[in-house]
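Page 47, continued from p. 46.
Same chain as before, 376 aa.
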Amino acid sequence: MKSRIIGFAVIVVALITSLVWSRQRHVPLVVSGFIEADEIRLGSRVGGRVLSVHVTEGKSVQKGDILVELDPYDLKEREAVQVAARDRARAEYEKLSQGYRVEEVAQAQARVRQWEARAEKARNGPRPQEIESARAELNVAEANLQLARDNHQRVQKLYSEQATTQQNYDRAVSELKASEAMASARTEQLALLEAGTREEDVRDAEAQLEEARAALELVQKGYREQDVQAAYAGMQEAEAALHAVQSQLRELTVAAPLEGSVEAIELQPGDLIAANAPAISVLDRNSLWVRAYVPEDELDVKIGQQVDVTVDSYPDQTFTGEIIYVSRNAEFTPSNVQTPEERAKQVFRIKVALQNPDDKLRPGMAADVWLENRTK
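Result:
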């Protein structure tokens, strides 16, 4: 009987001791979640018909790898048109900015000298030598006229006496008329020279000279600044239009923006892709993180805090994580997340960035985040 009492007492003491020890033992705080990765949803800003697909779901890709190519349709031709427009606008701008050619300036200078000579000639009028020459020509014409008259009278007398032929008489008449016309013309010519250049001709020559001088000044100064600026704006406009087409051409090739893996792609050659619509999903495996939820009464965490992370696939290995986000607003624990706390208790969402040097971690893995030092 006494031994039974002693045994019962030992059991009670052991239970009490175990209970006290369990209450005093500190269990490190751990929260659970799933590993996630940043998802990049790729597409084209121009859209179009799929020409070729270079990847499949799950394939690893490097930054710059071509994923999908689209049919250029008429973009190549539009680019050629814009290249020609750009070259034409550039040539026009260079022409205006460089001014007139040396040959054009020399031509304008020669035209000024030409009209200077004409204007001076108009102002000075005929030279005395020209008047004397005209008077001498008039004298010759008058002498010829007198000779023709004498010959006409002689032939006329012979003709009346029927001593010469009709042909000789007609010739004498023609020579007389020609001499009279020549003498009259020489008289008018001398009168014009003696009267000098008309005032209208002088003014016309001077006006032509002013026009030539203005043209010379224009080519020496070059094109107006407004014209040069307009040509430059036209060149900029043409280059911008060309860049727009070239940007559209670049959008025909969908490339991987980073190293990762293709999460989803359902494209075949001939399919149509809408502009600005996601068509490919790529996961950034170099940016893994855990979404977890911390109970309200354990919210003693801060951004930048280093924590340990474990996964079921590697139970004996600890990964390093860093808290990069703590929600400002409380929420209820999602049904798919396991925590040591009551499910109805309010929690705060945190985001823990992971280091994955050996490329062992994968999106979708369950992970435990140790907010305190893990007990070995």
